[in-house]
Amino acid sequence: MRKYIPFLLLVLSACDFNVKTSTSTSSSLQSGKSIDENLRNTIQEKNQFVVECLEAENSRDISKVASKYMLDEGFIEGTPILDSYGKLMETNEFSVFGEYYAKASEPKVEIKIDEKFNRGGDTNKFEIRYRSMAEESYLSLLVKNTGSSELLITALYGYYDEEWKLDFLSLSTLTSYGMTAPEFYYASQEFRQEGDIVNAYIYSLFAELTIEPCEGLFFYDKRQEMIDYSNSVKMDYESKISLPDTMHNIKSHPIIIGLGVKISANLDYLPWIQYFTSLDPSDTEAISAERNEIAKEIESVFPGLSRKFKTQMYEAYVQQ
């Protein structure tokens, strides 16, 4: 059962991401400054410890504040995935995106919270849903800047034997380039209306990658709408962009076979071009020169791509 222990990657932008709590169900709920100050300070100290562990690439120490439930789920030795993301954390500083204290009548009651960002009207409305293993729970949504992207660290605590323990920890992408999944979705629609199917497709992929800031807990209101649109724009893209496409004006005649999105080592989302090469893959100098030539001519295959993205990622394959 992984539902409460997903260890994922997440990104968010350092813009105005304050949230407005609209409604809640299945429990008494407090959020933000309405929560008792002493309780907020207690959880803040635990959050600081967790982020310091991540920044030090030492996620196994998080087990010191983990609940029996979390340990039983296998979080005893930590996880290399969390430690790998810790390498991107130059400091242990973070900001609070949202915090919620809930008291239910019994354990495992579903908590529901309706939220939206303080920008874009209803564009970024979302719902938080979770089941706490304890009657009292505290959910912290923390923002960690990693450059052009940011991490959303989701930490859920339960109150056991007069002590707050960590039940759930997740890192995943909230935004990239300062945009949320719904904002990528709307931008993609604009590109499509302008006849720019390449960037419409790329932005729909960005929306897909940021659609679940915390798997199984964070749900955008427009989630299904975005999924349906993504399928539609993909079909449109495939009908207008013919692949594979041989670049005859380059001496080595590389064959472009695909366009996607890939996350760089710095958590930047970049267009990802895959191609077949006739060169020896061990000749890194020749491969690098070929990629530079492809980059100069890539507009002939993907019109409009360089207009929005000055940097792309390339991956060469040898055709068998």
What is this structure's SSE topology?
Layout (H helix, E strand, L loop, with lengths): L18 E7 L2 E4 L5 H19 L12 H5 L7 H7 L8 E9 L6 E8 L7 E7 L4 E10 L3 E12 L2 E14 L2 E2 H13 L3 H13 L8 E3 L2 H18 L4 E2 L8 E9 L5 E9 L6 H14 L7 H4 L4 E6 L2
Helix pairs in contact: 4-5, 4-6, 5-6
Describe the structure.
The chain contains 8 helices and 14 strands. The chain has 320 residues and is an alpha+beta fold. The chain has 3 domains: 19-176, Nuclear Transport Factor 2, Chain: A; 179-240, no CATH class; 245-318, no CATH class. The strands form 3 sheets. Strands 2-3-6-7-8-9 form a 6-stranded antiparallel β-sheet, with helices on both faces. A 4-stranded antiparallel β-sheet has the order 1-4-5-10, with no helix packed on it. A 4-stranded mixed β-sheet has the order 11-12-13-14. The longest helix is centred in the N-terminal third of the chain and has 19 residues, at 37-55. The two termini are 40 Å apart. Mean pLDDT is 84; it is low at 1-26.
Order of helices and strands: EEHHHEEEEEEEHHEHEEEHHE
Straight-line distance between termini: 40 Å
Helix content: 25-40%
Q: Which secondary-structure class do the elements indicate?
A: alpha+beta
Shape designation: elongated
Name some characteristics of this structure.
8 helices; 32% strand; 3 domains; disordered N terminus; four-stranded antiparallel beta sheet; six-stranded antiparallel beta sheet; 320 residues; 29% helix; alpha+beta; Nuclear Transport Factor 2, Chain: A
